[in-house]
């Protein structure tokens, strides 16, 4: 049964922190980190009593990867101002999430729903040092945010260059701050369960069975190469639903970060149209049905001769069958770019030339992929 996935944006949807104080965590020695970065995993030496003909046992790389990546993962905690029931003196009414260091001079990527509505937020690094946030830039459409702390010589995480090479079944690690702030830099291991998932998001997500709990949001999903594949953001939570977490892929994270660094906001191209997906696309059938124009919003679209009831097949020769298809394709475009739209108008196949405006991307309706009473939740 297909049910509507309800997104609970804002830090109020998270689990309150049990502790506000930071507890020291052990940090890897510099030599240990360097040996991993250099790819020196080594092997477990065979006991002398065992024949040399026996195959050497390869050391498990997971602990070394966690040691190497953990210094790039932070915890973020503060008072959520969106809850009208919280009193000004309630110092324990806190919420928290996770973040990933992206620049040595204090820039951190996290989820927008972790930061939004958070007052007096504090960032705690893996070596138990606390910092106030000095700047923040949010993009709620992608659920990503950049924050900065006054710190130097931090260890940035390495993001994967080609997330299109991820394979289903590939082992992955999630690192973050689940449930309680005293559990910072907790790690869980699982596998990639699916790719290119359209689940209550403007962009496609990575699905994994790695345990992602409240507080993990903003933390990394890490490959066995020690590279960040995505930012953990969303999960399905209900009786009978187990280990269905979703992460924003590294290529989307990089796209959003570049825009926030350059403009302080994300300047997205817009068709100036309201579009409706086909029934097949909404329920997830493997079809390539076109989208239908329900409303012409911009003067440019009207000038191009586009009208309500027209059907959109392709943009610059690229077939689009869902709203997420368009959002993904538009990562390579800027407002002001000219595109060619293959459309159907009054029964005729036509080509329309359109100059893209600037605005919010197209986001699908309330339908989500899930069985039973599952609901999609953002996880702080």
Automatic annotation (TrEMBL):
Stored InterPro entries: Chloro_Bact_Ser_Proteases (IPR051201), PDZ (IPR001478), PDZ_sf (IPR036034), Peptidase_S1_PA (IPR009003), Peptidase_S1_PA_chymotrypsin (IPR043504), Peptidase_S1C (IPR001940)
GO function term, MF aspect, one: serine-type endopeptidase activity
Entry keyword set: Hydrolase, Protease, Serine protease, Signal
Pfam families, per database record: PDZ_2, Trypsin_2
Coiled coil: none
Domain PDZ, residue spans: 280-351
Chain positions covered by the region annotation Disordered: 361-380
Keyword set includes DNA-binding: no
Signal peptide region: 1-20
Similarity remark: Belongs to the peptidase S1C family.
Protein name from the UniProt record: Trypsin-like peptidase domain-containing protein
């Amino acid at each position: 049964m297909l049910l509507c996935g309800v997104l609970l944006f804002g830090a109020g949807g998270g689990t309150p922190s049990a502790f506000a104080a930071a507890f020291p965590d052990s940090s890897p020695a510099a030599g240990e980190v360097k040996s991993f970065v250099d790819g020196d995993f080594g092997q477990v030496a065979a006991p002398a009593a065992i024949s040399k003909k026996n195959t050497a046992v390869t050391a498990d790389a997971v602990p070394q990867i966690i040691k190497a990546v953990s210094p790039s993962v932070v915890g973020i905690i503060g008072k959520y101002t969106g809850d009208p029931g919280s009193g000004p003196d309630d110092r324990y009414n806190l919420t928290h999430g996770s973040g990933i260091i992206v620049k040595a001079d204090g820039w951190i990527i996290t989820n927008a729903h972790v930061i939004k509505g958070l007052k007096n937020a504090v960032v705690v690094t893996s070596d138990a040092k606390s910092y106030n946030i000095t700047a923040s830039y949010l993009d709620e459409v992608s659920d990503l945010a950049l924050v900065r702390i006054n710190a130097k010589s931090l260890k940035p995480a390495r993001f994967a260059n080609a997330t299109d090479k991820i394979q289903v079944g590939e082992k992955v690690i999630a690192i973050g701050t689940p449930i309680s702030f005293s559990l910072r830099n907790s790690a869980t291991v699982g596998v990639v369960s699916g790719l290119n998932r359209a689940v209550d998001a403007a962009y496609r997500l990575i699905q994994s069975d790695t345990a992602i709990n409240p507080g993990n949001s903003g933390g990394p999903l890490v490959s066995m190469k020690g590279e960040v594949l995505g930012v953990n953001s969303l999960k399905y939570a209900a009786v009978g639903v187990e280990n269905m977490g979703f992460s924003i892929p590294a290529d989307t994270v990089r796209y959003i970060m570049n825009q926030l660094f350059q403009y302080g906001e994300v300047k997205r191209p817009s068709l100036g149209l309201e579009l409706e997906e086909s029934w097949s696309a909404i329920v997830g059938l493997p079809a390539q049905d076109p989208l239908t124009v329900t409303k012409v919003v911009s003067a440019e679209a009207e000038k191009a001769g586009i009208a309500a009831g027209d059907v959109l097949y392709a943009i610059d020769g690229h077939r689009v069958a869902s709203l997420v298809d368009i959002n993904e394709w538009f990562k390579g475009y800027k407002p002001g770019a000219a595109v060619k739209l293959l459309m159907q108008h009054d029964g005729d196949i036509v080509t329309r030339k359109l100059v893209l405006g600037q605005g919010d991307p197209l986001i699908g309706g309330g339908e989500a992929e899930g069985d039973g009473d599952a609901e999609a939740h953002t996880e702080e």
